[in-house]
Every structure is written in C-alpha cells, then in structure tokens.
Specification:
By secondary structure, this protein is α/β, with parallel strands linked by helices. It has helices at residues 13-17, 30-37, 40-44, 57-65, 90-96, 102-105, 119-138, 150-160; strands at residues 4-8, 48-53, 72-73, 143-148, 178-184, 187-195. Helix 2 (30-37) packs across helix 4 (57-65).
Length: 199
C-alpha cells in the first residue's frame, strides 16, 4: 500500500494576516502560487494513484498547480467551519477570551449557514476522509494525495495516528507544505512533515 500525501494550499491574503479562513473562498496570492509550484518535483517523483481536493478555490488551484490530474473534489476536505470566528485572528479572539485555543475550546456560534464546528465534528469528517483514502490506497499501487487546509489536515493527522482531534495542535503546518503519512511495522507514522522546498 502507498503512502498518504497531505498538501496544504498555498498562501492567501487571509492566511498571511492570520485571519481564520474556513468557508470563505479566498484565492491564492501570487506567493501562494509560487509555494504550490515548488512542490511539483516532489509530487512528480512519486506515482500518484488518486488525488482528492477540498472544493474551495485555494485548494483546487493548488492541486492544479502541483500537477495533479483527475482530482476528485470532496466536501469533507473543507476547512474547519470557524462559525463566529470566521475572518478573525487569534489575537482578536483572545482579547475577548483570554487563553482561548481552537483545538480545545472550539469556536463561537456563527450564522445558520456556517454555525461552526467542534473539534470532534472536524474529527468525524477527518475519519470519513481517511476511510475514503484507505479505499483508494487499497485499489492502487500509488500514493494518495489530499489537498486541503491547515487546521483540517492537522486534525486528520491526529486521527490517522489514533489521537483525539484536539491533538492536531501538535502538528504545525505551513502554507504550501507537503506531509507524508506512512506505516512502519503495520502502524501509522509520520514519514515527512511540513516539507517546503526552497524555504
């Protein structure tokens, strides 16, 4: 069975400024496009059996720029729904809630269309994505690539390693970075993390 490659989309104006960017569909910056292009040699050096992307444009464009073809879009790969904290920075939130931490405290309720998610709800989506990825890995000799978002991929990594969603806090993940989750002696492991060529 191949490995699972995780790609966080390239930089956006909101990620650069630290604004929580969940369901707001902001585009990549030119720097974000460059970050994605730097990953092309790493992706091309592996046989890719299947690729999946979040439906948000910053992830879809990243998938295109890194040279993925026949990418399947899956809504479960969407970023954490930050609810009432959408577009707000951690510093701004902590002015009202000192000590607030996303992975343990969750978010404030948002509007009906985007009410927000608990860490456990994000973990449930991550589990569904992992089941989908495992099915794809079982049917190909190559690797599977997931192109998505920072906080979501951190939760997914925690779940892959058998940890609760809150432990996604342990895995810092930069924009335009590649991570590799594999196995060793039948156990899930991190084989490479936060790989950013040229940085």
């Amino acid at each position: 069975m191949g490995d699972l490659f995780l790609v966080r989309h390239g930089e956006t104006a909101w990620s650069r400024s630290g604004r929580h960017t969940g369901l707001t569909d902001v585009p990549l910056t030119e720097h974000g496009r460059d970050e994605a292009r730097r990953l092309v040699p790493l992706i091309r050096s592996h046989r890719i059996g299947a690729a999946f992307s979040s439906p948000l444009q910053r992830a879809r464009e990243t998938a295109e720029l890194i040279g993925l073809h026949e990418v399947q879009v899956d809504a479960d790969l969407t970023e954490w729904d930050y609810g009432g904290y959408e577009g707000v920075t951690t510093v701004e939130i902590q002015r009202e809630r000192p000590g607030w931490f996303l992975f343990t405290d969750g978010v404030a309720p948002g509007p009906q269309a985007h009410p927000g998610e608990t860490p456990e709800q994000v973990g449930e989506r991550a589990d569904r994505v992992l089941a989908m990825a495992d099915a794809a890995l079982a049917n190909t000799e190559g690797c599977v690539v997931l192109v998505a978002h920072g906080h979501f991929l951190r939760v997914l990594t925690a779940r892959r390693l058998g940890l609760p969603p809150s432990q996604g806090a342990l895995f810092q993940l930069a924009t335009g970075a590649l991570c590799r989750l594999g196995t060793e002696h039948g156990r899930h492991v991190i084989a490479g993390w936060n790989i950013r060529p040229g940085v």
